[in-house]
Amino acid sequence: MSEGGTVPGRLIAVVGPSGVGKDSLMEALCAKRPDLVRVRRVVTRAPEAGGEDFEAISPALFAARAAGGDFALHWQAHGLSYGIPREVHQTLARGQDALANLSRAMLGQAARVFPGLHVLHVTARPEVLAARLAGRGREGRAEIARRLARPAPAFPAGLTVTEIDNSGPLERAVDAALSALYPERV
């Protein structure tokens, strides 16, 4: 129990391959559950890059903030640095659940930092994922094929992981996620 007898909230890590619809799912979950807090990541990516709502900063500022303890978690992937602001602990202490788009490689560390971590592993059929990636226009056919052929690493032992198939209508994926996260309210 945290201050005032509030049951601490959970960090809900949303993971899955690029193009699977993690951001769309997170937006829809927050629309259905206004009490859910979406964590705004800090990323060393240009603000005009699009996609999720994030705080864009320079690599030098990111390094300074990481050294100063500004992040609950931080990592590098695909040539960029990503951070989860430490303020997420305040959200959880108030008893609110928080959604964060995390790297699968960070889940072991996330479980140590955030007791009660719940992982939503978002998937889609390969043909759906290939069509979504092609529609974004960021990668050629060969790159998409290589991305789809890469095996996903195993999840660390002991995690609570719910697989959400986002191949069909988004509403179906939202309902499946809410049923897994809040079974008592379904």
How would you describe this structure to a colleague?
This protein is of the alpha/beta class and 186 residues long. It has one domain: P-loop containing nucleotide triphosphate hydrolases (Rossmann fold). It has helices at 22-32, 59-67, 88-93, 107-113, 126-136, 141-149, 170-181; strands spanning 11-15, 37-38, 42-43, 55-56, 71-77, 80-85, 98-101, 118-123, 160-165. The chain has a 5-stranded parallel beta sheet. Helix 1 crosses helix 7 and helix 5 (126-136) packs antiparallel against helix 6. The longest helix is centred in the last third of the chain and has 12 residues, at 170-181. The protein is globular.
Short description:
By secondary structure, this protein is an alpha/beta fold. The protein has helices spanning 22-32, 59-67, 88-93, 107-113, 126-136, 141-149, 170-181; strands at residues 11-15, 37-38, 42-43, 55-56, 71-77, 80-85, 98-101, 118-123, 160-165.
SSE blueprint:
Elements lengths: L10 E5 L6 H11 L4 E2 L3 E2 L11 E2 L2 H9 L3 E7 L2 E6 L2 H6 L4 E4 L5 H7 L4 E6 L2 H11 L4 H9 L10 E6 L4 H12 L5
Parallel strand pairs: 1-7, 1-8, 2-7, 3-4, 8-9
Antiparallel strand pairs: 3-6, 5-6
Keywords: ATP-binding, Nucleotide-binding, Transferase
GO molecular function: ATP binding; ribose 1,5-bisphosphate phosphokinase activity
Organism: Roseicyclus marinus
